[in-house]
Amino acid sequence: MCKLDVYDWLKNTTLPESKALFDCVEIRFKNNRKDFFRITPDMDLHVGDIAAVEASPGHDIGIVSATGDVWFVFS
Questions:
Q1: Cα 60 to Cα 34: distance, rounded to the nearest angstrom
Q2: Per-domain residue ranges of the chain
Q3: How far apart are alpha carbons 36 and 66 in whole angstroms?
Q4: What residues contact 13, with CB distance under 8 A and at least 6 apart?
Q5: Which residues pair with 28 in a beta bridge?
Q6: What does 6-28 look like in DSSP terms, one character per residue?
């Protein structure tokens, strides 16, 4: 188990009909770095997906480590 792993304790719950899915994902990169990114409604990202993000300079490749409302609860 990686020390940057996340346990999504809300993954088996359903959202109320009046609430939209939280629009952020957490992406884990090499060298023990994580960052959070807003996604658009047309993006369909899931835990374990590989993602390329803009960086300075160029791009960074990471793995989606958490999505959805698990972050809303903590903010």
A1: 12
A2: 24-74
A3: 9
A4: none
A5: 34, 63
A6: ---TTTT----TT-PPP-EEEEE
